[in-house]
Amino acid sequence: MKKRRRLTLATRMLILVFLPLWALSGVSIGIGTYYMAEQQTRKLKDDIKLIARAIRVPIGEAIDKGDLATVQRTLNAVFSIGQVYGASVYNKKGERIAAAGIARHDQDDNPLAKKMLKGGEDGDAYQHQAGRRVYSHFVPVNDGGAQLPIMIEVTRRASDFSTSVDRLAYWAWGSWGLVGLLTLIIVLLGYRQAAGRQMAQLTQVMGEVGRGQLKSRAQVKGATELAAIGEALNQMLDDIEAAQAAIEAHQAHEIALNRRLERQERMAALGRLVSGIAHELGAPLNVIDGRARRIAKSNHDEKSARELTAIRGQVGRLTRIVRQLLDFSRSGMQWQTVELRSLIDHALESVGYEQQGELPDYTIDIPDSFQVCVDRARFELALVNVLRNAVQAAHHHVGITARLQPVEKQWTLDIWDDGDGIDGELQAAQLLEPFFTTKPKGEGTGLGLAIVQNVVHDHGGQVVLLPSEQGGLRVSLVLPEEVPS
Prior knowledge:
By secondary structure, the chain is of the alpha+beta class. Among the domains are: 9-168, PAS domain (Beta-Lactamase); 332-480, Histidine kinase-like ATPase, C-terminal domain (Heat Shock Protein 90, 2-Layer Sandwich). Helices cover 58% and strands 18% of the residues. The protein contains 10 helices and 12 strands. The protein has a 5-stranded antiparallel sheet, sandwiched between helices. The protein has a 5-stranded mixed sheet with strand order 7-9-10-12-11, with helices on one face. The longest helix has 75 residues, at 224-298. 22% of the residues are buried.
């Protein structure tokens, strides 16, 4: 389909506004020129008429006395004025008895004079004299109030009228064309200043938006209508951007919910599997530990005793793993308000029983009155796992601090060590995954931080892993002040 060519706004303004106004002014110029030409022609004719009437009395007196010389001098004087092209005096027969100017070169009598004599009144007409087109005005001669059978003719070149009219028309139409050109320039410049630039800027912004640059905004300036269009365009873009942001936020929220649901489903499945395995392993481990204890009592061989002690140590390790698996799979929260310092002390005591060798120094900065609302058993299990990792990783020192954040309506527990830290290539999400461990094979189950993450998540908080200022790792447990619903 052939694309229809559309006119620009400037072209439409020229066609619909400028051209009609210019044409109207042309019509006005034409009418005005016509009437001015009529007035100019009438003025030129009136001048000839006044001259003819001015000389008819002295010429009449001179003719009455038979003084043709005076008549001739009067005609010559009239001709010398400059406005007169010729002058003649006719008798009652229409014969020229005196002449001046171009009339002296015309040998033929003028039949118009005889015609005018019969009427006895003023008259005028265009005619030819000596091959030239002239305008003649005829007046009868009076002598003391009595009309004589004499007619005076005063002529003027017909070209004087056309020249005057042409000059007037030339200046009128020339001025019209010049004013039209200046008006056209003013209209175009005015359009460019009033609307053209703003329209171009709006078009540019729309093009940028069409290319996906939704941050582009139109400048709100210029005429009220264009400013309103710019404001409407900007408002539309703001609404689009807000809608997109809302859609993206909704999508992000859905993704987060799906991830949480997926994690909960995975953790639930894992919990069921772990619970089953733990229960199946619990009874055999108790039997092995009991048999090893009885054998050790009845056997006094030192070498056998060492072997049985080693067996019981491994059984104890497996028992702790089974207990962790059961705690990991446990669901349900039992909230109670407790002193945080008391939980820390119990957790440190449990860790102290597990560790062999010299323990690191502890720095605890927690007021005795610092109370929190948690599931005591589960949260103490999380503390034990964090402190166990810190004690095992520390060289000399472990720090424990707690702080309240009223603005955020949450509190944070920081546990750090001065150990070697973790590999910079590892991410926090990896360390929090179940069964992921950085310890040598046989020394870690990979459930410690996973249990911590699960317990803190159930409390409505989060676990943050960052390098500590002392060189090791800082584990921050961030929990809300209020109990999650």
